[in-house]
Write a structure and sequence with these properties.
This protein folds into two domains: about 1-325, 3-Layer(aba) Sandwich (Rossmann fold); about 330-430, ANL, C-terminal domain (GMP Synthetase, Chain A, domain 3). The chain has about 425 residues and is of the alpha/beta class. It contains eleven helices and 21 strands. Strand 16 (about 330) and strand 17 (about 335) form a beta hairpin. Helix 2 crosses helix 3 and helix 5 packs across helix 6 (about 140-150). The structure holds adenosine-5'-diphosphate, potassium ion and zinc ion (ZN). Potassium ion binds next to loops. Catalyzes the activation of phenylacetic acid (PA) to phenylacetyl-CoA (PA-CoA). Pathway: Aromatic compound metabolism; phenylacetate degradation. Monomer.
């Protein structure tokens, strides 16, 4: 079902016209209400009158996470605090937290966006959702929570942690859908298998995962282990939270909620806009946000966009999976690599569990990469020659994909730390030297 047919299936020209109108109004608002943006626009000699169509967006200044930090806590808010009804903070994966503020209308729009996502995943008012993202400052928990209610489905506000109780409630309450990070989903699936409750006694059928990068191979792994149909949901707190984009039944990229968020792809080096199809940094302008509207926010997330028609009938632009964040990119002996590339390779080999850790170091001025990976039960062996053979095969595959030699450390099942939220995939010891 398509929750908001007029907005999700709008003709491209009509959408662009709507975005242009909203962009003009947005720029007027921030020009008058946010001194930070007025100053930036004055420096660039742009006024709201120069911004009439969606193509004019390129005349506007970028916003970065550093701008949010420099204006911490409320400097980018565009309404008085009397109109802010909620605060969230980003989880600070890459540094000190940043604060975001929402008006009543922002929250209503957010819930409606999530209802669109959940409908695209095939869920409806008959579903019972376990929301297992963290509740609190993180946008995942409360964001999904109110979206599920808006859909009219039933929400179990689980939050993360307490996995044993979680499994009992998913079972007893007959949860049909679950939403959390993909890494927690894996952890939970393993714990469900160990709990001794027969798989048929669970009613779970839909899994909605996001908040960190994950690969197609990871999707298959979770689907098999948990017995759900798994969908990708994307978002970031600065822009709104989860629900900025979502997959549909076609699973061929994630539709962006374009009537509220105007996407661009830029070259992270030259900052020039790139055409559809090319990979670069994703940038969003929040067309309707009141509390903390942002012009051309640089997400650091690397992906590509397409406006090719989708068989589901939605016309909104789709984004590819996030390859990684530009800050996650490791440069090892001059070679650029993303943890997701290692994940793909590991999961293509049946001998490995989807649990891995990259340890980067610098020894005698030379970068080193160690890949720690869990060997699946049944493949782990005390026979040294078997393990050496396995290590060599993985090393060879990684070498051909990454163009880099990695040291492989095979570890026993369940020895790498599990995550209830966003997984930590990299330990970069070079920072300490
Ligand atoms: P932080 O930047 O502190 O982690 P957020 O909790 O807002 O703050 O996280 C947003 C980021 O999480 C995004 O910019 C993106 O890097 C990542 N993310 C969110 N959803 C997905 C997804 N479905 N796939 C890949 N990455 C995602
Ligand atoms: K208030
Ligand atoms: Zn679609």
């Amino acid at each position: 079902m398509i929750w908001n047919q007029p907005k999700e299936c709008m003709g491209r020209e009509q959408m662009r016209a709507l975005q242009g109108e909203r962009l003009h109004k947005l720029v007027e608002r921030v020009y008058h209400n946010t001194p930070f943006y007025r100053r930036k626009m004055q420096e660039m000699d742009v006024t709201p009158d120069d911004i009439r169509t969606v193509d004019d967006v390129v005349k506007l200044p970028f916003t970065t996470k550093q701008d949010l930090r420099d204006n911490y806590p409320y400097g980018l808010f565009a309404v008085p605090m009397s109109q802010i009804v909620r605060l969230h903070a980003s989880s600070g994966t890459t540094g000190s937290p940043t604060v975001v503020g929402y008006t009543r209308r922002d929250l209503a729009i957010w819930s409606e966006m999530i209802a669109r996502c959940l409908s695209a995943f095939g869920t409806d008012c008959n579903d019972i959702f376990s929301v297992a993202y963290g509740y609190g400052l993180f946008t995942g928990g409360l964001g999904l929570h109110y979206g599920v209610e808006h859909l009219g489905a039933t929400v179990i506000p689980m939050s993360s942690g307490n996995t044993a109780k979680h499994i009992k409630l998913i079972h007893d309450f007959g949860a049909t859908a679950i939403t959390c990070t993909p890494s927690y989903a894996l952890y939970l699936a393993e714990a469900m298998a160990q709990a001794g409750i027969p798989r048929e006694e669970f009613r779970l059928k839909t899994g909605i995962f996001g908040a960190e990068p994950w690969t197609e191979n990871m999707r298959r792994e979770i689907e098999t282990k948990m017995g759900v149909n798994a969908y990708n949901i994307y978002g970031l707190s600065e822009v709104m939270g989860p629900g900025v984009s979502h997959e549909c039944a076609c699973k061929n990229g994630s539709h962006i909620i374009e009537d509220h968020f105007l996407p661009e792809i830029i070259s992270p080096d030259t900052l020039e806009p790139l055409p559809y199809g090319e990979q670069g940094e994703l940038v969003f302008t929040t067309l309707t946000k009141e509390g903390m509207p942002l012009l051309r926010y640089r997400t650091k997330d690397l992906c590509s966009l397409t406006d090719e028609p989708c068989p589901c009938g939605r016309t909104n632009v789709r984004m590819s999976r996030i390859v990684g964040r530009s800050d996650d990119m490791l440069i090892i002996r001059g070679v650029n690599i993303f943890p997701s590339q290692v994940e793909s390779v590991i999961l293509e080999m049946e001998e490995f569990e989807p649990h891995y850790l990259l340890v980067v170091d610098r020894v005698q001025n030379l970068d080193s990469l160690e890949v720690q990976v869990e060997v699946r039960d049944g493949f782990y062996s005390d026979e040294v020659s078997k393990m050496i053979g396995l290590r060599q095969r993985l090393a060879a595959r990684l070498h051909s994909v990454l163009g880099l030699k990695a040291d492989i450390k095979l570890v026993e099942p369940s020895s790498i730390e599990r995550s209830e939220g966003k997984a930590r995939r990299v330990i970069d010891k070079r920072i300490l030297h």
